[in-house]
Amino acid sequence: MASLVTCVITSAGWCFCTACASLLGACCGNDKASTIPPSVTSGRRRSVLLLFFSIAMALVFQYGIAPAIVDANDLTSFVRDKWTDGCSQYVDIDVVKSCAGNNGVYRVSAASTLFFAFAALGALLKPTANREAWPAKYTLYFFLCIVTIFIPNDPLFSDAYLNIARIGAVLFIVVQQLVIVDMAHEWNDSWVAKADAAEAQEAGSGKRWLGAIVTACIMLFGISIIAIGVIFSRFTGCGTNNGFITVTLVLGVSIVGAQMSGEEGSLLASACVFAWSVFLCYTAVSKNPDASCNPMLGEMDTVSIVLGLTVTAISLGWTGWSYTAEDKLRSSSEEESAAAATARASDDSEKDVRRDVTGVVTGNDYGTQDDEEQANSAGHAEVDESVLNNPSRLSNSWKLNAILMSVSCWKAMALTNWGAIVANGNAANPQVGRVGMWMVIASQWLVLTLYLWTLLAPRLFPNREFG
Question: Locations of Basic and acidic residues compositional bias (predicted)?
Answer without folding.
Answer: 345-357
